Every structure is written in C-alpha cells, then in structure tokens.
Amino acid sequence: xxxxxxxxxxxxxxxxxxxxxxxxxxxxxxxxxxxxxxxxxxxxxxxxxxxxxxxxxxxxxxxxxxxxxxxxxxxxxxxxxxxxxxxxxxxxxxxxxxxxxxxxxxxxxxxxxxxxxxxxxxxxxxxxxxxxxxxxxxxxxxxxxxxxxxxxxxxxxxxxxxxxxxxxxxxxxxxxxxxxxxxxxxxxxxxxxxxxxxxxxxxxxxxxxxxxxxxx
Length: 216
Hints:
9 helices, 3 domains, Arc Repressor Mutant, subunit A, six-stranded antiparallel beta sheet, globular, alpha+beta, single chain
C-alpha cells in the first residue's frame, strides 16, 4: 500500500535519518525487490525521487500526501486517548486501523472537538498545525548533570519497537516530564536519570529514542 511507504519515508526524514531502499524494506518487513518495484511506481507518479546519494526523498506531492496520512493518524490518536481514554499502546494500534476510513470532514471535526492539539500523545507534531521544537536533542546526547524536559518519543522507534510505548508509559517518561541525568556510563552505555522522584536507568539505545529540550 502506497500510504505505508509514504508514512515510513516521512517519519524517517522528519527525524533526520537518511533513507535507502534496504532500510525501507526492513522497516516495512518486505523484500528489497518489492520495495524497488513500489518506489519505481511512486517515482513515476511523482511522489518520490532519489537524490545524488541514492537516498529516497519525497517530492512536494509526496510530502503533501504523507503529511495528510500522518496528520490523520495523530489526530485519531489524540481522540482515542483524550476523548475515549485509551492508553498509548492501544490508541496507536487503533489509529492505524481507523485512519484510512476517516474522511477529511470527520478529521477536521475531530480536531476541533478535541481542542485543536498541536501534537500526538507521544509529543510528535501534527503536520499543518505545529512543528518540532528547534532546540530538541536526543536524550542519549545529554551529559551527566544535565536537566531537560522530554518533548517526544521517536515515531521511528514507535513503529520498530511497539513495546517501547508501554515501557516508557510505565516509567512516566512522557512528554513534559522533567528529568535530570545523574550518570552516564560510557562503558555500559547506560544513562541513570531522576524523573518524578524516582531513579531510572535507560540503555543508550532507548535514550536515543526520546527527544528532549535541555533546561537553560
């Protein structure tokens, strides 16, 4: 389905991850020849192009289409969590099922009903309504003693590690949470944090999936 390709490409590029066919195949769980065929069709239809480094990019048309898909998904997530009270994990899965069945009219009405949010429940900006914060950094890049506010969970990580959402929610590592880095262990590749009066140790890999805004 073209929408899956557009969504995946959008997520990776929005987080600054260069994208090649092999990476896209891994993400989608399909063979590389399948991706090659799909990309040729999408290029023919003016949705994607390959740059000089053989990386996949969205054209202006592809960008508009991808933003429409992502916007609908994130609005659905907000409605399912804020309006219906579903948890992060369930809402994300249900939004993926519902987003293709919702018309633009319903999407706009839902957006109004839930109070015009700027982000999805995980802090990622809703295209057309907000943008990523310019001073965000990955949590894994912070040094010992640094203080910051968690701003969002990597959308790429959400898709590749579904259990991550439940893991973070259980530890209250959610957007808006203030954290202090107590220790960075470069040998064990872990970060020990203080968040909400508790200490939490994260692997470097998990910390890299969180974005945060450093405190002055």
